[in-house]
Design goal:
This protein is an alpha/beta fold. The chain is built from 9 helices and 7 strands; from the N terminus they run H-H-H-E-H-E-H-E-H-E-H-E-H-H-E-E.
Length: about 270
């Protein structure tokens, strides 16, 4: 999972360029990567394919909207964002909802960078950064260890954004099972994520886009499911009580974004015991 680092800086720059972030979360590495990769992704646009920024903004805004819909009526009072990178979501949501507990989790190096950035911004005690290895089954960096510090009587949302495509199918299924088990312990449990499926892009464009992304992050970019129905069945099989896997472009929050039609948004719920 160490190769995910470059995308954390790149997406951090996208959020900053579109007014979604704090200046402390935009790093020189991200600005350099954005400038370097712009010609690569222009090929996709010229061939009628998606724009990377449009896809990233689409998934980000839809996840934001769904999270807001869960917080507003009081169903969710805690958020655990796994592999948070330089995402500004925690900053924005804790500014908007002062009582919200927001935990950003990542591997140690990225967690240290994010913690330092948030310290420079100045954050309340309810907004913190922890170290987490999403694939660790046990130990201090495991999901179970991190979740043990949260209040089971308050609804919890777990978010992954930009993570699943860099994992194997088996790792994704194991992660979903761990999330479902964890969320079932809480009063309300919600999982939100982005996901790519084969059905959403023509084969040639999909290979070009995935190949460019793979070169960018120095790791294969994987698509695990043929379509949304197969992904939904996998979520239910992992232990979620309800699940939907819909195109980001179908949500009003992604209106007009070229690329939102190439990414799905996962929304899954667990029931408490």
């Amino acid at each position: 999972m160490a190769s995910i680092g470059p995308t954390a800086f790149y997406t951090g720059e996208v959020w900053a360029r579109h007014g979604l972030s704090h200046p402390e979360l935009s790093r020189p590495e991200g600005r350099m990567l954005h400038a370097f990769t712009a010609p690569w992704f222009m090929v996709s646009r010229m061939l009628g394919g998606p724009t990377l920024d449009g896809m990233l903004l689409g998934r980000h805004r839809v996840i934001d909207a769904m999270l807001e819909d869960a917080i507003r009526p009081g169903h969710v009072g805690q958020v655990l964002e796994v592999a948070a990178g330089m995402s500004p979501r925690g900053w924005r949501f804790t500014e908007r909802h002062p009582d919200l507990v927001y935990v950003e989790a990542d591997l140690p190096d990225m967690a240290a960078r994010k913690r330092a950035a948030l310290e420079r911004i100045g954050r309340p005690a309810t907004h913190r950064v922890v170290e987490l290895d999403a694939l660790a089954a046990t130990g201090p960096l495991s999901l179970a260890s991190v979740a043990a510090g949260l209040d089971e009587h308050t609804g919890l949302a777990i978010i992954t954004e930009g993570l699943l495509s860099y994992l194997s199918r088996d790792a994704v299924l194991e992660l979903w099972s761990a999330f479902a088990r964890t969320l079932a312990r809480f009063e309300h449990g919600l999982y939100l994520s982005d996901l790519h499926v084969d059905a959403d892009a023509p084969a040639v464009l999909s290979r070009i886009f995935a190949g460019t992304l793979s070169a960018f992050v120095r790791s294969p970019v994987r698509v695990h499911f043929a379509d949304g129905s197969e992904a939904r069945d996998a979520l239910l099989g992992a232990g979620f009580a309800e699940a939907s896997v819909d195109l980001a472009s179908h949500h009003p929050a992604a209106a007009g974004l070229n690329g939102a039609e190439r990414v799905r948004i996962v929304r899954a719920r667990s029931v408490s015991p």
